[in-house]
Every structure is written in C-alpha cells, then in structure tokens.
Amino acid sequence: MFDTAAQPGKAILHAIPLPAIIMTSDLQIVDVNAAFASVVARERVTLLGKQLFDEFPSRPDSPNLEAAIRASVQRALASGRTDALPPGRHDIVLPDIGYETRYWRLSHSPILEGERSGDILQLVEDVTAEVTSEKLREARERTAAEGAALSFWDLNLVTGDLIRSPAVDRLHGFEPGEAGGNIEAFLDRVHPDDREQARANAFSAAERGPGPTILEHRLLLPDGRVRWISARGEIVIGPVNDEPHLVGMVVDVTEFREQEAELRNALASQKLLLDEMNHRVKNSLQMVASLLNLECARASAETRGKLLSASARVNAIATIHASLYQDGDVASVAVDSQLQELCEHLISSTGCDIRGIRVELDVAPLRLCPDKAISISIIVNELVTNSLKHAFHDREQGMIEVQLKRDGGGSLLLTVRDDGHGARDGLDREVRRSSGLGERLVQMSARKLGGRVEHSHDQGGWETTVLLPAAES
Questions:
Q1: All residues at 6 or more sequence positions from 99 whose CB lies less than 8 Å from its CB, including other chains
Q2: What are the PAC domain coordinates in residue numbering (predicted)?
Q3: Is the torsion defined by CA of 73, 78, 82, 87 positive or negative?
C-alpha cells in the first residue's frame, strides 16, 4: 500500500480543481484527486497502486494514448519540465456500461523534490465534447467541398434519362462511360433495403410540386462498401414537351452520418451515467432514512421525534432526486411534475388522506434549473410537513394549498396555506413559526435563491409566501 500522506505534492494534488494524478515513472498510480476519480467514474481507493493501463486498458482495434503518455513522461523526466500532449483518443471502461469514447488533453510534470522525487504529476482534461464538435464541423465542411466539386445531375422524370457530371459516376463506383444514360444503372447501386424507397422518392418529386427535394439513401458499391449519399435538388420544367426534370447536386455524407451516430452514442452514454448517478443518490438517501428509522426503535421519545423528522426530510430529498431529468432534459426540471410527486409522497407517507386532509396544487407549468427546483421542493416539503404536523392535531378534515406562479415581472411567488389553526393563541403562533430546523431550512433555501419569506395567520389558518426574484431558469 502507498502511504499517500508522506508523498510530496499530496496537498497540491488534492487542491487542484482539474482532474490530476501522481504516478511513478513506470505509470503506477500513487494518488488521484477527487476530480480525476469523478471523471473516470472510479473510487479513489480502488486506483491506488494500480498500473495506469491495467486499470484503463486500451479498447481493441481503436486509438489509445499509452505510447504517447510513456514518451511524454520520459521527456518530462529528462528535461525536468512540463511536457504537454495534444488532444488524443483513449476510450475507457465505465462500470456496467462498457467502453465509452473519450478524448483527453494531458500534461506531465516531474516531481523534483522530496522522498518521491522522480514521480510524475499528470493533469487530465476531458475534451470529448470539444473534439467531437470539431470533427462534426470538419465533416460538414468536407461534404460541402464535395458538393462544390460539381456532382451535378439532371433527371428527366418521364423518360428516366440522366445527365450528370463525372463526379456522380465516381460517387456510385462507375468507370467513365460504364453506367449509360439512364437512372436504372444508378438505382441498381442503391442498397437493396433502400432501393424501392429511393425510386419512389425520385419519381414522385414532380407530384410534390415546386420547392426543394432531398433524397438520402445508402449505396452498396461493387467492392462491398456502404456509403450514404444526399441528393438535393428542385423541379424544373424542361424545354421539350414540358417534361419535369429533377435537377440538383449529390454529395457523400457517410462521414457525417458516422459522426452523427458517434455523437448520439456519446449523448446516450452521458444520459445513462446521469440517470445512474441520480438513481444511486436516491438509493443512498433512502438507505440513510432507513437507518434513521431503525435507530428510532431504541431512542428516547424526544430523540425519536427528531430522528423521524430527519428521516422524513431525507426521504423527501430522495423523492426529489427520483424525479429529476425524467423527461431527458438535463438542463432544466419540470417543477409542476416534481412538486406533484413530492406532495403525493408526503400524502402517502403521512397518511393524511386517511385523516381527511387534502393537499391541492396550483402550479404553473414551469421549467427551472435543477438547483432552483430542488430549493423550491425543500421549501414546499418543510411548509407542507409543518402544516400536517401542527394545523390539524384535533381536526378530522382540512386542506393545504400549494401555489407557484410567475407574476407580471417574471418573479416567482410560492404560497403554502392551510385552513387549520392559525392564531388561536400565542402558543400556536410560536409553534407554527418556530426557530427550529424546518424554519431554518425554509429561510436558508429562500436566501439561496435571493428570495424572502413572509408568514401570516388569522382564525382561518396559516399562510407562508416566498417571493423569488426574476432570473434565468
């Protein structure tokens, strides 16, 4: 085992905001910081003492950075200076997912002082999004350049005669003069699974009338290669017998299609990771709540009440996490749906429906950033729980209303009111607006969003309003 506490640079390593590791000259991992463990989806303790490429093996038949890293480490040690590498691809294995395509920008700096001098500090930057976006842009530019290379065609939609530039023949794998003057030879090169649809799309273009026509399908070339082409044109009436012609350009979009598929896979992997993280957070919170419930059995009456309150709060936050990103949007949360699920959880967990207490929601269909949505959910949880706890202790029926709307200036107004005990006596007022944890959570969550909290009460019940200033969702 490595004694990381005795290693030089440990404090610096764990203070670096970028993913970073310390390793020996033969790439044995000495220590990693939290940012590195997060980006590679590993626990820090599982990496200590491992060989870098035993833990992150190269994907079969794909590029990897092992040779470049080893050479960079040797250059850094020989020169005593930082050696930086350009972005490169090295796919990594993620738990329960398999390999995922990743691009990295790395630098290696020698550790020159202390007992472990001769080790290497590696800074790691995940540049997958940057590189894949650049590759997509390059693919688009290449296809545009190919289109400008005069891949021109003119199809007579009555006779099937095809006038085209030599680039069209080359694109379909024909030698000069081999294909003849009719569209049929070119349709024979269309992939069998796409052929009938391609024919129908081409010859029905005239029926669709004026305007652009886009035809995309696969080719199956004589050497077995499959290529994607995109033909873009428009209907033109010819000089003979008013016959319609489909005139346009054709380009090879295979690389663009492949990049599209790679990006879709990358986005699917990222969503899977996000869903898995949320699921694990929810499960972990539910486990904490269960442990608190177990402790209640052997706790005093006063402690038992506090443990049950804590368990309820943890369960509420777990419910919030369970509802995040359910519609696939990782940038915002549907607050109306989230509050609906939260209140349903409170109803079922407290049995208030059996007691004859209703919780009614009037929430506008809003989408907010996750941080703001979670803070609002915590406020609602505390206020509704407070009403359930204090408003109806000698009542068989009651109602709690939750409203969330934007005002004319774009600010958010959250209101939670009940028709239970409001201002029956001074004791009720102090209990309902206590300085306990619930009230502090409400005030803290509101301040986090720049808002303010106001309480009011009368014989008709208790009302709390939270005004949140206008801001981007």
A1: 59, 91, 92, 93
A2: 213-265
A3: negative
This prediction's pTM: 0.44
Q: Encode pLDDT of 67-84 as tens digits.
A: 999 999 999 999 999 999
All structural domains of the chain with their residue ranges: 4-126, 141-252, 268-330, 333-473
Tokens of 444: 């803290």
- The tokens describing 147, both together, are 């289109």
Dist. CA 440–CA 453, nearest whole Å: 11
Alpha-carbon gap, residue 225 to 215, rounded angstroms: 20
R_g of the chain, CA atoms, integer Å: 33
Residue 211 is predicted with a pLDDT of: 66
Q: Report the distance separating Cα 204 and Cα 255, nearest Å.
A: 28
Cα–Cα distance, 265 to 252 (Å, whole number):
22
pLDDT of 124 strictly over 80: yes
Give the whole-angstrom CA distance, residue 418 versus residue 140: 59
pLDDT digits (tens, 9 = 90+) for 385-403: 888 888 887 777 888 999 9
- For domain 333-473, give the CATH number: 3.30.565.10
Contact 134, 25 (CB under 8 A): no
For 153-212, the pLDDT digits (tens) are 788 888 888 888 888 888 889 998 898 889 899 999 999 999 998 888 888 876 766 667
Alpha carbons 206 and 263: distance in angstroms, whole number: 35
Q: The CATH number of 4-126 is which of 3.30.450.20, 3.20.20.210, 3.40.1190.10, 3.40.980.10? A: 3.30.450.20
Whose tokens are 């009719």? That residue is 182
Tally the residues of the chain.
Answer: 473
CA angle centred on 460, ends 458 and 466, rounded to 5°: 65
Tell me the CATH number for domain 141-252: 3.30.450.20
